[in-house]
Fold this protein.
Amino acid sequence: MSKPQDIQILIADDHSIFRDGLRKLLEAEGGFIVVGEATNGEEALNLVRELRPDVLLLDISMPRLNGLEVLRRLPKSTSSLHTILLTASIEKSEIVEALLLGARGIVPKQSASQMLFKSIRSVMAGEFWVSRDMVSDLVETLRGPAMAGPGASKTFGLTRRELEVIAAVVDGQVNKDIAQTFHISEYTVKHHLTRIFDKLGVSNRVELAMFAINHDLIKQMDDNRVVEEHSASSPETKR
């Protein structure tokens, strides 16, 4: 029996064995209730409208409508829906497209069940979830020239050290690595990240990396470093 606080989930996948196994895993965990199952993209859209689940676990490769097409066609009235793409494989460009279309998470099907549970709870808390294995692909694609944003000339009130921390996050460094790189404590790193999140309006490292690359924050920091190095080596500065 479901409880009011249970997260209501709709599974959309065309493989019945996978759906059955996933449903049993979710309901055995507690706190989750599977309210419906869809076997293709069109059925997924219909059940979203009918059941209004909290979370849609959506296979990217399905008959009739694939996962990306389902994301495009989700009605605006489902703005409270949290969609997580489940995928056996996905192209770099599809990762970005899915997030731009409103997906809140992307989870490989081969992930451990605890990772799936964590991703569901994270997106329900308002965060994005992208598998660590996919982050490098996401960053590489976002670094492409076509993704440069209109706000590239802004620094959003960030200090030089905050820009350095952002660059380290984009490179995939964890707090411990960042602390060692800049000879500061992990507590100080966390303090910098809290201020950065507040200034940029992001809530986690994935959103931060997407924002930084889309607004060329890393390039601006590199450009400033070049200017400073040039000034330091010029004759005027040595007088």
Notes: The chain has eleven helices and six strands.
